[in-house]
Amino acid sequence: MLVSFSVENYRSFYEEMTLDMRIDIENKESIEENPYVYKINNDYISKLCILYGHNGAGKSNLLNALQYIFSINTYDDKSMPEVFYNNIIKNLFIPNMIYGKHKNTKFTVEFYSNYQNNKYSLYKYELVLNNESMRIESESFQKYNEIIFKRNNNS
Question: Which residues fall within 8 angstroms of residue 132, CB to CB, at 6 or more apart?
Fold first, then answer.
């Protein structure tokens, strides 16, 4: 289940923008009976997300970024043609053209998965792209705060 998604220096976003599905609660009794809230471990996650804003505010850019991140991480040689896969990667290398041509683009996804022993695990994936060299600056995958995978400079 998606917990949060952040994007920085991508298309219409220059500063970091975060879509966080967590709910800050003051009254646990009222929130636990809400059908639009899901409790995972100690977090309360909204089952409902509505994006609204003026035309050109970045709603589509946010959803495209999320789609591209999930697409490159679920790539299967048999199911997706290489041309399509390469286009997805190219679409991630589109910085904010007004302010961010020389700044890295960063994507962060937090999600719960892997239900075991009546508990979900919290994972965090982060991808930083260098827009000048068109290469991966860094990439990491964590379970809670323990690093499972990390690479720097496209290694």
Answer: 101, 102
**From CA 146, how far away is CA 129, in angstroms rounded?**
22
Could you give the C-alpha distances from 143 to 25, 58, 71, 95, 110, in angstroms and in order? 25, 30, 20, 28, 10
43, containing H or E segment: strand 43-46
Helix (H) or strand (E) holding 111: strand 105-116
pLDDT at position 129 over 80? yes
Tokens representing residue 29 in the block: 């009794």
Contact 3, 45 (CB under 8 A): yes
Rounded to whole angstroms, the Cα distance separating 103 from 113 reads 32
Residue 36 has phi, psi (to 5 degrees) of: -100, 10
Q: Which of 69, 106, 101 is nearest to 88 (CA)?
A: 69
Helix and strand element counts for the chain (H, E): 3, 8
Per-residue pLDDT averaged across 114-127, rounded? 88
* Distance (Å, whole) CA 9 – CA 128: 10
pTM value is 0.84
